[in-house]
Amino acid sequence: MRIGILGTGGMADALGTQWRRAGHEVLAGSRSGGLREAAEFGTDAVLLALPYTAVVDVVAGLEDVLRGRVLIDCTNPVGPGFALLTAGGPAAAERIASVAPAAPVVKAFNLCHVDVWRLTPPVFDGRPLAVPLCGDDEAALTVVRRLVRDLGCEPLNAGGLDRTGLLEATAALLIGLWVGEGADAQAIAPPLEFARPAL
Ligand SMILES: NC(=O)c1ccc[n+]([C@@H]2O[C@H](COP(=O)([O-])OP(=O)(O)OC[C@H]3O[C@@H](n4cnc5c(N)ncnc54)[C@H](OP(=O)(O)O)[C@@H]3O)[C@@H](O)[C@H]2O)c1
């Protein structure tokens, strides 16, 4: 695949390195150069690895080249005090979709710290990391599922774009538990056999 990455920070480096290793062509750009070139390059997918506070304006400015591109949104609209910056309004992914209506958006990779995305592979206690995806476009989801598997992770269907707010709120909750409380947030969920009525 040809993958463009908007941003050249930690998430761009972690995921871009993994996808290059998997055999994909990757071009990243930042505001100091190459942002539009990266958007043009990403004919199969474009990762939005920018702060939430910048991503909507950047995508709006590149809307012409992003038409038809699969946009992978890993942003976390989380501010000081682990507050959800989008509370009461559309999710970050929905705001991105509204300024680039001709580009399918898939929310992914937002739940784990950048260092987790550098692991080869991210497997804990013998279980590959599960990566929930939200999006409305089945072809775009298929692309992102493949990119998740290229990391050694397992994609999970987490619903349509209308559920991205839940994924973003989950990130705010988890980051607050991990960073704010030093809590083992993984322990908040029981194993599947206890999590739903017996079949
Ligand atoms: N770090 C994590 O553990 C983690 C985990 C999951 C999701 N995320 C999310 O992933 C996204 C990227 O995080 P990151 O850790 O990669 O951030 P980062 O290392 O700070 O990199 C951010 C990138 O965005 C660029 N940027 C900043 N402001 C910009 C603007 N106004 N216009 C254009 N470009 C701008 C930066 O360019 P300059 O170098 O020029 O400043 C840099 O290339 C964020 O939304 C974050 O919430 C992060």
From TrEMBL:
Alphabetic keyword roster: Oxidoreductase
Pfam families documented for this protein: F420_oxidored
Gene3D superfamilies, alphabetized: NAD(P)-binding Rossmann-like Domain
A GO MF label: 8-hydroxy-5-deazaflavin:NADPH oxidoreductase activity
Record EC number: 1.5.1.40
Keyword Oxidoreductase applies: yes
Superkingdom of this protein's organism: Bacteria
Residues annotated as domain Pyrroline-5-carboxylate reductase catalytic N-terminal: 2-33
This protein's record includes keyword Acetylation: no
SUPFAM superfamilies given in the database record: NAD(P)-binding Rossmann-fold domains (SSF51735)
Protein name (Swiss-Prot/TrEMBL): Dinucleotide-binding enzyme
